[in-house]
Inverse folding.
């Protein structure tokens, strides 16, 4: 604790064993580190490729303590974690990055927004919902967001009119103006223990309208260089405002009026940066390992543009995943296939992704759309 | 057996659990496959990142049978394997690629050379050593090679004069002319189950003269395009001559007279192509998985040049590895660090490697040499 890290036998802990933890673990193992994953699902994706898995939930204090005590450095693939259990361990000197204080700030989307706002970061107009009557205070349409626990489109509700109030989120929530969105942009900022900062290219996220899940990502975003620089400056300002250590996915709106507004920050690897595995010198997954272990950050240079497409579980199926069209998509030029090893599929579950590389981004997009048409993740049980 | 493969739950077996098996396993896991490794060392590098390890040697027939019976497809990270045990399994229809017949041919360097020669592939002048007197039959200097079992410079002896005959290799061997080498070149050829062929760029291998171990690799080789094409044509002819399935590292000599001669073929991932992980669209490690499972081959396009440097155990140390200089080399631009997770180091053992990327190959080489100077793998026991 607080002694210099010994990179010869470094033990890394990862809270969360889904696809983000899996790829992070693979990059840590590439560097020769020992990796233990905490996840409630035995044989989770990350557990399959790591030295050890502790089977336990993210609010299981005993298991969190066990993980942190047996590892030299612990990090996260998700933010829905018992931060109150982690704070005393961090205060005792255990290396937990991002710090539980950072995670706590980010967990609560309302507090996160208020904090960024107080630091002069541009955010959409927002307002706390203290009583049900507050729901009408910004007019309609308006976006209602749960303060905690939402992800992949969950915990977000568009209230178009008074009629929709009956569907309003019941727990703690806040309102956000309905932004007139031109593009949804994202960027990863890495900041290591020493305060060194590195920024990835700005990318463009496209969403599946049915479920509001990020569907595909274009890297780089099709925006002017000056705007890309503005996005980078804002993203770095965000991460420096709370002195984050690790990597941070910053999601932003580009409004039709050309303004950049920060939507939210994820204190971990981000779906929008899967493309970095193939397209950048250093992937986001290696970068987080470098950042939290105090190693110098790697180059974030884009060496070839790409389009990433999430492979979601087909509607109408659950159970063990059954792949359709794998040979066909791998016959397309410059396609990299990732499948996470989840034992069960369900509609819209993130089961894998592909990255299509091309020096010409339009050609990559065309092949990505073709691949998306061909490839299906069905399941053993029709619904 | 001989039924179409089900990519939804494909089980891959890998014979050999060192660094080549480790990275191959990581790429198979990326694609969602289940991986079992056979290796005599518990917790070997590949075992650390795979679903399962069978602890057993490569001549342990029961363990080989166990691996092959529990996997849909089995492949190799090394060629020193009991091929006689594998042949009947292959003949029964088990998917073992490259086939044990291919492995058998390649295992015996003399038979390999004779076979390539018979197919019109250019090879150095060679001669069987039937009796000790044969050792003088090509004059001096001459290269004596063990027919079987050599690797990383072992099983090769340069006989400079009659004086050296007392050091001659004792087992079955053959002689090869002392080629007047300008450069040592290597190339990977992939050929899948369907006979589709793909060729990687030609690279240049530089050797540590002290122990004749490949020390660094420049990708691409600094040779004229017409010569590179000749190398590719010869390499493809080699692999097609024995209808190899998998990936094959073809090592060649470029003589001072400008001739290409095939030195030897490795029926597996090759040290000279580690650079493909970062520099090419599809790494050699994903390519072998695609090839042996009958998937379409991936693009071999070089997207950024690089220099790969092996990180060998320092002279004077053994025991648990101790790293020196990791933060320093990671501070260099565009350096990717691989450490294999071997529990013991010894002088000249391959412990890891780095790949230095740069659009300008000379700049990559300069940084690679600097990194090699800075980084050391020492050990807990001084010798």
């Amino acid at each position: 604790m607080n002694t210099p890290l010994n990179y010869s036998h470094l033990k890394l802990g990862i809270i969360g064993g889904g696809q983000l933890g899996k790829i992070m673990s693979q990059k840590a193992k590439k560097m020769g580190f020992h990796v233990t994953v905490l996840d409630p699902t035995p044989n989770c994706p990350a557990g399959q490729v790591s030295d050890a898995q502790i089977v336990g939930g993210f609010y299981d204090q005993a298991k969190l303590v066990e993980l942190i005590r047996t590892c030299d450095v612990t990090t996260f693939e998700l933010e829905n974690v018992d931060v109150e259990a982690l704070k005393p361990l961090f205060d005792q000197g255990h290396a937990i990055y991002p710090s539980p204080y950072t995670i706590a700030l980010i967990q609560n989307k309302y507090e996160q927004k208020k904090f960024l706002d107080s630091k002069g970061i541009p955010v959409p107009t927002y307002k706390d919902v203290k009583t049900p009557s507050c729901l009408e205070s910004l007019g309609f349409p308006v976006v209602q967001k749960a303060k905690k626990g939402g992800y992949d489109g969950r915990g977000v509700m568009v209230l178009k009119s008074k009629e929709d109030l009956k569907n309003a989120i019941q727990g703690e929530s806040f309102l956000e103006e309905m932004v007139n969105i031109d593009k949804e942009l994202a960027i990863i900022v890495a900041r290591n223990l020493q305060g060194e900062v590195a920024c990835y290219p700005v990318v463009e996220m496209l969403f599946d309208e049915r479920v509001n899940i990020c569907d595909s990502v274009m890297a780089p975003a099709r925006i002017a260089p000056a705007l890309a620089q503005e996005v980078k400056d804002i993203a770095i300002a965000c991460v420096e405002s709370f002195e984050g250590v690790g990597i941070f996915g910053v999601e932003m709106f580009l409004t039709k009026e050309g303004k950049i507004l920060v939507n939210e920050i994820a204190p971990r690897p981000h779906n929008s940066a899967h493309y970095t595995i193939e397209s950048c010198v250093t992937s986001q997954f290696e970068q987080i390992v470098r950042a939290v272990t105090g190693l110098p950050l790697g180059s974030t240079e884009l060496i070839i543009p790409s389009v990433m497409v999430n492979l979601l579980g087909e509607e109408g199926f659950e159970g063990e995943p059954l792949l359709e069209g794998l040979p066909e998509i791998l016959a397309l030029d410059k396609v990299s296939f990732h499948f996470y090893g989840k034992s069960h599929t369900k509609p819209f579950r993130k089961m894998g992704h592909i990255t299509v590389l091309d020096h010409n981004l339009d050609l990559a997009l065309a092949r990505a759309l073709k691949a998306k048409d061909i490839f299906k993740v069905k399941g053993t049980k029709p619904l």
In short: The mean pLDDT of chain B is 95. Chain B has ten helices and 20 strands. Chain B touches chain A through 46 residues (CB under 8 Å). Residues 10 and 33 of chain B are 5 Å apart (CA to CA).
